[in-house]
Inverse folding.
């Protein structure tokens, strides 16, 4: 049984304003919750589950299914919900390794999927323009499949960061660039992915040192932003 | 104004049973509708829009916003909705070109996104196991972004098809395969993508001539099925 104030608190974290204010976010489902409980840089605030959730050695507040439905943001609630403090990361060193830049990605699912892709390819930092979706939006966080604890997602002006690191190459995913096939591996720099429909803003395009393109063979007009990111990272970082 | 029977008809197409019975499906939004109206293999059944949808030379049944809300399956309805007969394709020739095989893809959004990726990379046929999501599910169709008119999606037993074409190579996306990096280009055969959590069923794995893997650099446990498909197709078909 949860106090009314706890129900309200958990529900409020569906909104960015309250997530920012509380420095906390929600994840759901046994798999995601277990993975984040094991993350060294996350602090658990609350764990709430239904009777069917049983995990050796992990205490949680047990609630009825009807009560769980009220706090869950999933269309099919899945046994357990956890509130964590936002992850803590070291001060970012943009000159080390590759920084993924997301310019105005709007769809939380796309954003979360991209963070998961970044994690797969060993990218440690994702810089989002402040008008991008929030990675702690429940849909985004779920889509990261746990990568939100490993990949540092920052909301900063990427143009200003690039100006502070003028020697780093800037790869931009554009329609008219060099083919990504056969590009040499990228060891450090910025890889910029644009908004789902508007692409990359002019200010960032102007800083491009390596505009790249996924050549089209068939007839689809475009690729989904997350899919394009996966393809580009595999060709620039894979080996 | 729509007759009650028309409202019921359009709503019924949200269910596979009625889509199969009527041989029809729904798409929404001006961009998708315009693209499919121009497709040579699609026949329009009904076009319904609100007053703000105006398109030179295209007649449609105008309805009030409140009525449009009732027939739309989108959370934010977008001006126009069309019912089309399912696209007509030539008899498939599996020996020509590459066939993408989807083994039990469950999420309609993933399925639609994969069809769009197939179209980008010039694949003309996608064979889904009969337990896969329906490509004419509204969410799947929307996710194809129009590719549903260009890519033939079949629901058949891929194992039986492979048996009939024993000489074609079978590429399978698995965890323990050869790296996709540096693979020679694939001109014909089968490329098999597995279910989001269970992967590829044993029967199909046994037919694999080329098990392939996207090598992991970082720590994410897996990649989204559509993202993995995009990466694999770019390495096996891109040039």
């Amino acid at each position: 049984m949860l106090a009314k104030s706890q129900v309200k608190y958990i529900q409020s974290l569906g909104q960015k304003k309250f997530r920012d204010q509380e420095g906390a976010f929600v994840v759901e489902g046994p798999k995601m919750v277990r993975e984040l409980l094991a993350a060294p840089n996350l602090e658990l605030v609350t764990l709430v589950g239904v009777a069917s959730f049983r995990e050796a050695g992990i205490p949680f507040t047990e609630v009825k299914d009807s009560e769980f439905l009220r706090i869950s943001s999933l269309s099919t609630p899945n046994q357990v919900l956890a509130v964590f403090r936002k992850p803590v990361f070291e001060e970012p060193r943009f000159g080390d390794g590759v920084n993924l830049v997301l310019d105005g990605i709007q769809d939380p699912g796309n954003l979360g999927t991209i963070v998961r892709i970044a994690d797969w390819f060993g990218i440690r930092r994702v810089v989002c323009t402040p008008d991008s979706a929030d990675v702690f939006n429940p849909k985004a966080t779920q889509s990261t499949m746990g990568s939100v604890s490993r990949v540092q997602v920052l909301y900063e002006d990427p143009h200003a960061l690039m100006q502070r690191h003028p020697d780093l190459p800037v790869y931009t995913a554009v329609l008219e660039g060099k083919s990504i096939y056969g590009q040499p591996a990228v060891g450090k720099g910025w890889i910029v992915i644009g908004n789902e429909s508007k692409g990359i803003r002019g200010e960032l395009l102007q800083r491009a040192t390596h505009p790249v393109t996924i050549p089209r063979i068939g007839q689809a007009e475009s690729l989904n932003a997350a899919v394009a990111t996966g393809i580009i990272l595999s060709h620039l970082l894979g080996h």
Chain B has a mean pLDDT of 95. Residues 73 and 138 of chain B are 7 Å apart (CA to CA).
